[in-house]
């Protein structure tokens, strides 16, 4: 029906406006207390020089607040991969990039941008809003949850975008937003937020591993 089409067209714009004007007063969306990072094969480009040097590292939420450090920990991609992903962003993933521009402009106008940094084909935007999101070539991360886990998780959503293109917003995007909203009003639902699709898939694609899934010897760290 026509009314359904209008609603579907306006919904992303309404969500963007609400996220800036209303959500700063809401409780924070689900975030891990601790995690372990592992490099995903989709993120590491085998032809990049730094791929072999990447190691598994255990971090806590309080240890990775520096944006520059986070960017250094993400493996770089080759020039060829960068070109292919840029082309995909300009064509297959164009709807996400349109919303990205609108959302970023709104954040700028409302003074909610804290800092930015470039990472491979992406730009990380640290904001004063209480959540993280991946739209096109931008990763939006709240300053309150700025960790390597969060950046990797949102980068995993970017990988989902490469897979599903214009359908990403209706599939992963809408599902993720609804589940995040439900997590605000239901603690049991929030506790299993990262166990459900598309969040668990984003963790896998981004190289995030839950701490409680690792053997005790890894979590204990090296012995002297």
Question: Overview of this structure, please?
Answer:
This protein is of the alpha+beta class and 224 residues long. It has a domain at 59-208. It has 9 helices and 7 strands; from the N terminus they run αββαααββββααααβα. The protein has helices at 2-21, 67-73, 79-90, 94-109, 148-164, 169-185, 187-191, 199-206, 216-220, and strands spanning 34-37, 57-60, 113-119, 122-127, 133-135, 138-142, 208-210. The strands form 2 sheets. It has a 4-stranded mixed beta sheet with strand order 3-4-6-5, sandwiched between helices. A 3-stranded antiparallel beta sheet has the order 2-1-7. A hairpin with a 2-residue loop joins strand 3 and strand 4 (122-127). Helix 1 (2-21) packs parallel to helix 4. It starts with a helix and ends with a helix.
Task: List low-confidence stretches.
Answer: 1-28, 33-64, 211-224
What class would the helix/strand composition place it in? alpha+beta
Task: Record the strand order, biggest sheet.
Answer: 3-4-6-5
Strand content: 5-15%
Q: Total strand count, please?
A: 7
SSE string, helices as H and strands as E? HEEHHHEEEEHHHHEH
Give the distance, in angstroms, between the N- and C-terminal Cα atoms: 68 Å
Helix proportion of residues, in percent? Answer: 40-55%
What is the alpha-carbon Rg in Å?
Answer: 17 Å
Choose one word for the global shape. Answer: globular
Please tally the helical runs, counting DSSP H or I stretches of 4 or more residues. 9
